[in-house]
Design goal:
The structure holds two protein chains of two kinds. Chain A is mainly α. Chain A is built from twelve helices and two strands. In chain A, strands 1-2 form a two-stranded antiparallel ribbon. Chain B has helices at 2-27, 49-57, 60-91, 97-107, 116-125, 132-136, 143-154, 158-166, 171-182, 184-200, 203-208, 217-225, 233-267. The chains are: A mainly alpha, B mainly alpha. At the A-B interface, helix 1, helix 3, helix 4, helix 5 and helix 6 of A face helix 1, helix 3, helix 4, helix 5 and helix 10 of B.
C-alpha cells in the first residue's frame, strides 16, 4: 500500500504520457488522421504506402548515414581529447573546460553558429582557409549547398557540440586506471605508445561499448542541426527521418501516416536499445 | 616530442573555443561591417547598439525565462518523482516489485521521438497544448532516472534502514532523512543532467506550442533568426544573449557537472 503511494506519481505520468501514446499511436496508424480530427479507417493502407515510399527509405538512409559519419569519429575524438586533458600539464583544467563548454549550448545556438561559420564569402571557416592559403583568394567552398560538404559541415558541428559528454566519460575512465599498472608497464620498458595501446585502450573498452551504442541511438534521432543548417536539402538529400515525420504530420496534415513512420523508427531504436541493454548487462554479469 | 603534444593540445583547444569567441566578438561588431580577411572579424569598432535593439524589440528575455522556468520545474519534479519511485522499488517490499521494475525498465526502450506524434494527439485530447503544463508534464516520467537512482538506493545497506525502523521511524522519515541525504551526489547529478536535457529539448516544445509567449529558447531562436538572415551581428547577439545564462551556470557549477556526468553516465 505504502509502496503504491510512492510509486503513484511516477506511474501515473509514465502511463499517461509514454505508455498510453504508444498504444494510441497504433490506433492512429490505421486511420486517415489529420491535425483537426480522426477521419476514416484505412486498414493497412498507411503501412502499404510506407513500404513503397521512396522518401521514407531515403530519409532512413540519411539518418543511418549520419550515424555512420558521427559514431566512429565521435569515439576517436573523445578519446583524443581525453588523452590531451589527462596529461600532466598546467593547462589541464583549462582543457577540460574548453572541450566541454560547447556541450552546454542549446542545440539551436550550436546549429546557427554552424550555419554562419560555414557560409561562403564571409563565413569563419572560409575566411580562415583563405588566411592560411589552403583556399585560393578568389575561390569559395559552398559547404551548405553541396550534399557531400553539407554532411561534413553538419557532422563537424555535431561533434564539436556534443563530444563533451563522451570526453568526460573517457577522462574519468582514464583517471580510474591505477598508477601502479602504468608504472609497472614503464619499468618493463614500455613507451607512451605501448602504454596507450596495451594499458589505456583495453581499460576503455567497456565504456567504449556503452558510448558507441548511446551515440548510435542519439545520432539516429538527429533533427534540428540538419533542419537549421541545410533544411534537409539540397533537394531533400540530407533530410533525416525525424524531419520527414514532422513534415508529414504537421505540414502535410497527415498524423496517421506520420505515426506509421514513427513505428519504424521505434522498431529500429528498440533493436538498438536492446543491444545496448544486453551489452551493459553482460558487462555487469562479468564484473 | 613533448612540444608536439603541447602544440596539438593548444590547437585543439583553440578549435573548440574559436566558434564561441567568434560569436561573442561578432555580437559586438557594427552592422554592415566589411569582412575581407579573417582578421576583420576581430577588429574594432565595437558597439552594443544591437543588444539594445534585440532586447527591446524581441521576446528573447521572455523565452529565456520560459526555458529556465520549464527546466527548473522539470528538474525538481523529475528528480522528486523518480526518487520516490526508485525508493519504493529498492527498499519497500511489495508483491509486484520485480514486475514493477521491468515495467519501468521497458520505458528505457521507448524513444520519445517515436511516440511524439501520438503524444501530440494525447496532449490535444487533454487540452494541454500551448501551456506550461503541456511543456512540463510529459517530460516528468524518466525511466532512466528511476533506474539510476535505484542503483544508488540499493547501495544503502538494508540493515541501516531496518535499525532506523526499529527506532520507530516511518517510511516517509526513512526516505526523507536517511535515503535522500545519503544519495545526495547522485540526486544532484541527476538534477544537473535533467536540467541540461530540458534546456536543450526542442522537438516537443516545437510541436506542442504555437503561442510565441510560451516559446522556449531552442524554438524561439529559429523563429527569430528567419527575420535576420542578411547580416551576422543580430544572429550572433541572439546566440550570445541566449547562451550567457547557461554559460554562467556552467562556470559556477563546472565541478558538479563534470562529476555528475561521470557518476551517472557510467551507471546509465
Amino acid at each position: 500500500m505504502l509502496a503504491l503511494l510512492f510509486l503513484l506519481p511516477f506511474v501515473l505520468i509514465y502511463v499517461l504520457y509514454t505508455i498510453w501514446p504508444m498504444i494510441k499511436g497504433i490506433e492512429m496508424t490505421f486511420y486517415k488522421w489529420t491535425l483537426i480530427k480522426k477521419m476514416s479507417y484505412v486498414g493497412w493502407d498507411n503501412y502499404n504506402k510506407m513500404f513503397h515510399d521512396r522518401e521514407v527509405w531515403e530519409a532512413i538512409w540519411h539518418s543511418t548515414l549520419f550515424v555512420i559519419l558521427t559514431t566512429p569519429t565521435m569515439v576517436v575524438l573523445a578519446i583524443v581529447l581525453a588523452l590531451i586533458a589527462n596529461r600532466k600539464s598546467r593547462l589541464r583544467k583549462l582543457y577540460r573546460t574548453v572541450f566541454f563548454i560547447p556541450s552546454v549550448l542549446s542545440v539551436a545556438v550550436a546549429s546557427f553558429l554552424g550555419l554562419f561559420i560555414f557560409q561562403p564569402y564571409m563565413g569563419f571557416v572560409n575566411t580562415f582557409l583563405h588566411l592560411i592559403r589552403i583556399l585560393p583568394e578568389n575561390s569559395e567552398i559552398f559547404w551548405l549547398t553541396e550534399v557531400g560538404l553539407s554532411w561534413i559541415a553538419v557532422s563537424a558541428i555535431t561533434l564539436w557540440w556534443t563530444v563533451g559528454f563522451n570526453f568526460i566519460l573517457y577522462l574519468s575512465a582514464m583517471q580510474e586506471i591505477p598508477d601502479e599498472i602504468v608504472e609497472a608497464a614503464r619499468l618493463d620498458g614500455a613507451n607512451n605508445w605501448n602504454v596507450f595501446w596495451n594499458v589505456t585502450l583495453p581499460h576503455l573498452s567497456p565504456i567504449t561499448k556503452t558510448i558507441t551504442m548511446l551515440q548510435i541511438i542519439a545520432s539516429f534521432k538527429v533533427f534540428l542541426q540538419i533542419y537549421i543548417i541545410t533544411g534537409g536539402g539540397p533537394l531533400d538529400k540530407t533530410r533525416p527521418i525525424i524531419q520527414l515525420i514532422y513534415q508529414t504530420g504537421f505540414r502535410e496534415n497527415d498524423l496517421g501516416y506520420a505515426a506509421t513512420m514513427s513505428y519504424v523508427v521505434f522498431v529500429i531504436l528498440l533493436v538498438l536499445s536492446a543491444i545496448q541493454y544486453w551489452l551493459n548487462n553482460r558487462k555487469e554479469a562479468r564484473a | 616530442m613533448k612540444w608536439i603534444y603541447r602544440i596539438i593540445s593548444l590547437i585543439a583547444a583553440i578549435f573548440f573555443l574559436a566558434p564561441i569567441v567568434w560569436m561573442l566578438i561578432v555580437s559586438i561588431k557594427q552592422e554592415g561591417m566589411k569582412i575581407v580577411t579573417l582578421v576583420d572579424w576581430f577588429t574594432p569598432p565595437y558597439s552594443f547598439a544591437v543588444y539594445d535593439e534585440i532586447l527591446s524589440t524581441t521576446k528573447l528575455m521572455n523565452w529565456t525565462f520560459n526555458s529556465f522556468f520549464v527546466a527548473a520545474c522539470v528538474t525538481i519534479l523529475t528528480v522528486a518523482v523518480a526518487a520516490m519511485a526508485s525508493f519504493a522499488i529498492s527498499k519497500i517490499p511489495f508483491r509486484y516489485r520485480t514486475a514493477m521494475f521491468f515495467f519501468v525498465l521497458a520505458g528505457l526502450l521507448i524513444p520519445g521521438e517515436a511516440v511524439i506524434i501520438p503524444l501530440y494527439q494525447v496532449a490535444k485530447d487533454m487540452s494541454i497544448l500551448n501551456s506550461y503544463q503541456g511543456l512540463i508534464l510529459p517530460a516528468l516520467a524518466s525511466p532512466v532516472a528511476v533506474i539510476v537512482l535505484k542503483s544508488f538506493f540499493d547501495g544503502v545497506p538494508n540493515e541501516l534502514v531496518e535499525s532506523v525502523q526499529i527506532d520507530g521511524a516511518g517510511v516517509w522519515r526513512i526516505f526523507w532523512s536517511i535515503m535522500l541525504p545519503l544519495t545526495r551526489p547522485a540526486l544532484a547529478s541527476m538534477a544537473i543532467l535533467t536540467f541540461i536535457g530540458s534546456w536543450n529539448n526542442f522537438l516537443w516544445p516545437f510541436l506542442s506550442v504555437t503561442d510565441d509567449n510560451l516559446f522556449t529558447l531552442p524554438m524561439g531562436i529559429p523563429t527569430l533568426m528567419n527575420q535576420y538572415s542578411e547580416d551576422y551581428v543580430k544572429p550572433m547577439v541572439i546566440n550570445t544573449l541566449s547562451s550567457l545564462p547557461i554559460l554562467l551556470l556552467f562556470i559556477v557549477f563546472e565541478r558538479q557537472i563534470v562529476k555528475g556526468i561521470s557518476l551517472t553516465g557510467i551507471k546509465g
